[in-house]
């Protein structure tokens, strides 16, 4: 069986792979681009199991700039992804992100806020009294205040994914339903991939967009990535007392987070150190009732009466070095590009990352320099410092 040849093979057809394919095809429709996806229903994709949040409240300049571009890209998304008169609807809701701050986090929050404002972000410091004024159900006695990003919000992750996928295919990208079982190499460069069905694909450029499976894939090329699949759980609640309007995504100093969802429901979750590593998609109601509920009721006492409707689990591709993206060409293997380790920030970073990868591969000067995320720091063991917010 002869191998098919492509200019670029993207491994993983989630949000990162689809965005990269779209930007490549938009740059040059003569390119032969293949996207290999093993889960075409996206049942286990981190994209579709996420809370689909978009925020500028980071404390690393490049992460802020990535989200500023996401604002722009998602604001224009429905028009730009229209194909043959079919316009996607991504339900982009800018209902804000509110980071609650206690005294121990006040200095870091102030430094992050100053950077965000310097970059032109619409983020404000709210005192405890101001938080209470906006959201009367909140108990703010133990807080120093909080930072509120009014342009932050969330969207329909599946609709965004399908928008990129449909447009990339429309522009000429090819989707292959299979699993990549090996990245093949020759003379210090990638040469292609081998598929589970036995077929081989030849290409000078391979892009690892495998999400939580990224390290497993990289190992087939002899590369060790500090990326682990970590289970994260989200719970859907029906509270007896309803807020008078939508609640922003609210993040406590402990890491607990919640926001309202359509249908008068509440979503709540929390990332914890003991969260299991591995490909496990089960969810545990005791995690909510025994750990999260008491904490939730402390910040919003009215939520002490509620019903747990359902839950789900998805995977974060956690970069254990520093929690930031691993982005660009692997220094020791020519043509092997990485877009990995987004640690829960992938969906909001996909537009800027897809554009950046397409620029690197086609040799165009990057509009936004993201070289700070180069995989070189993995080899040098030099973590990035994100500061106050992660």
Task: Give an account of the 3D structure.
With 390 residues, the protein is of the alpha/beta class. The chain folds into two domains: 211 residues, FAD/NAD(P)-binding domain, CATH 3.50.50; 147 residues, 2-Layer Sandwich (D-Amino Acid Oxidase, Chain A, domain 2), CATH 3.30.9.10. The protein has nine helices and 18 strands. Strands 1, 2, 8, 9, 10, 11, 17 and 18 form an eight-stranded mixed beta sheet that branches. It has an eight-stranded mixed beta sheet with strand order 5-6-4-13-14-15-12-16, sandwiched between helices. β17 and β18 form a beta hairpin. α2 crosses α8. The radius of gyration is 21 Å and the shape is globular. The termini are far apart. The relative contact order is 0.20.
């Amino acid at each position: 069986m002869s191998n098919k040849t492509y200019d670029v093979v993207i491994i993983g057809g989630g949000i990162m792979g689809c965005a990269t394919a779209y930007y490549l095809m938009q740059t040059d429709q003569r390119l032969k681009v293949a996207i290999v996806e093993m889960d075409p229903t996206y049942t286990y994709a981190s994209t579709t199991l996420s809370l689909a949040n978009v925020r500028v409240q980071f404390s690393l300049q490049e992460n802020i700039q990535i989200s500023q571009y996401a604002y722009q890209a998602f604001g224009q998304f429905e028009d730009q992804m229209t194909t043959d008169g079919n316009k996607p609807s991504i339900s982009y809701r800018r209902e804000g992100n509110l980071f609650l701050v206690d005294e121990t986090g006040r200095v870091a929050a102030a430094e992050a806020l100053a950077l965000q404002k310097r970059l032109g972000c619409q983020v404000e410091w709210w005192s405890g009294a101001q938080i209470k004024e906006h959201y009367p159900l909140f108990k703010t006695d133990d807080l120093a205040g909080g930072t509120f990003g009014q342009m932050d919000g969330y969207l329909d992750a599946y609709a965004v994914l399908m928008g990129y996928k449909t447009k990339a295919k429309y522009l000429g990208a090819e989707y292959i339903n299979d699993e990549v079982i090996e990245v093949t190499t020759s003379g210090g460069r990638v040469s292609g991939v081998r598929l589970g069905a036995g077929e081989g694909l030849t290409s000078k450029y391979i892009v690892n967009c495998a999400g939580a499976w990224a390290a497993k894939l990289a190992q087939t090329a002899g590369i060790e990535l500090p990326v682990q699949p970590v289970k994260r759980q989200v719970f859907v609640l029906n509270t007896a007392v309803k807020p008078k309007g939508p609640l922003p995504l609210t993040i406590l100093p402990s890491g607990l987070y919640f926001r309202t969802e359509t249908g008068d429901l509440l979503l709540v979750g929390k990332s914890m150190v003991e969260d299991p590593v591995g490909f496990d998609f089960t969810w545990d109601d005791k995690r909510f009732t025994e750990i999260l509920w008491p904490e939730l009721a402390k910040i919003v006492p009215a939520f002490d009466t509620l019903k747990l409707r359902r839950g789900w689990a998805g995977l974060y591709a956690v970069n254990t070095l520093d929690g930031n993206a691993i982005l660009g060409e692997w220094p020791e293997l020519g043509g092997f590009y990485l877009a990995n380790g987004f640690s829960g920030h992938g969906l909001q970073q996909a537009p800027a990352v897809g554009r950046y990868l397409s620029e690197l591969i086609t040799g165009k000067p990057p509009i936004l320099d993201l070289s700070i995320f180069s995989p070189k720091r993995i080899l040098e063991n030099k973590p990035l410092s994100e500061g106050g917010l992660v």
